[in-house]
Amino acid sequence: MDNSGGAVGASSGVGVLDKAALVLSALESGPATLAGLVTATGLARPTAHRLAVALEHHRMVARDMQGRFILGPRLSELAAAAGEDRLLASAGPVLTHLRDVTGESAQLYRRQGDMRICVAAAERLSGLRDTVPVGSTLPMKAGSAAQVLMAWEEPERLHRGLQGARFTATALSGVRRRGWAQSIGEREPGVASVSAPVRGPSNRVVAAVSVSGPIERLTRHPGRMHAQAVLDAAVRLTETLRRNG
């Protein structure tokens, strides 16, 4: 077997993967020129170049402004997906507790492009309820969960997202100040909801946890009734992500 892969860790028996892992490990400490990669990995120059370019094709490696090799965006996406799995694994008990405490249906939403998706839910067991099946895709233009997922966005994305929305920049400023959002008939007539942000290890908002139900029960001030319970659920999910982050 070619020994040009250096001596970082035990061989997996798949030489090309071992060498690709060497390249990624070398870039963990920061940007590197091709010569820097050769030095750090012990790979032959043509091998290091071929692997770095192939990893760049798969977005696991990218280039900085000086043309040096750096870790690519695909790695962040995979890390986020791993965090998502942890989020879903812990969501069930948290949403069930939130439903039991409030007596209303509880949901967890994640943003996907210009939409939000219900990735977990605990339905109210009986009586009138707001049913949002897992997998449902809802717009980012209305509803308390949409407000939460939008409120902490970068200014440019925030400005774009407000176009055609049922809520305003002033409303989102209030969401940031309070730390939670409410909506009364915004997404659907007769339905009220309260939502709070779930944050990842980097403090970025990665999801919104919500309760929703008929205005008759939640009243026109649903936050007064349920904001604290929703905030507590959001904190529990956030702590799970940070503990495992």
Structure explained in plain terms:
With 245 residues, the chain is α+β, with helices and mostly antiparallel strands. It is built from 9 helices and 8 strands. Strands 5-4-3-8-7-6 form a 6-stranded antiparallel sheet. Strands 1-2 form a two-stranded antiparallel sheet. A hairpin with a 5-residue loop joins strand 7 and strand 8. Helix 1 (15-27) crosses helix 3, helix 4 packs across helix 9 and helix 5 crosses helix 7. The protein is elongated, with a radius of gyration of 23 Å. Residues 1-8 have low confidence and may be disordered.
Summarize the structure.
This protein is of the alpha+beta class. The protein contains nine helices and eight strands. Keywords: DNA-binding, Transcription, Transcription regulation.
How do the strands and helices of this protein lay out in sequence?
Blueprint: H1 15-27, H2 34-41, H3 45-57, E1 61-63, E2 69-71, H4 73-102, E3 105-112, E4 115-122, E5 137-139, H5 144-151, H6 155-162, H7 169-178, E6 181-184, E7 191-199, E8 205-214, H8 215-218, H9 222-244
Antiparallel strand pairs: 1-2, 3-4, 3-8, 4-5, 6-7, 7-8
Helix pairs in contact: 1-3, 4-9, 5-7
Strand order of the largest sheet: 5-4-3-8-7-6
Structural class: alpha+beta
Number of H/I helices: 9
Order of helices and strands: HHHEEHEEEHHHEEEHH
| Unreliable runs | 1-8
Radius of gyration: 23 Å
End-to-end Cα distance: 37 Å
Mean pLDDT: 89
Largest sheet: 6 strands, antiparallel
Principal-axis shape: elongated
The count of β-strands is 8
Q: What share of residues are in beta strands? A: 15-25%
Helix content: 40-55%
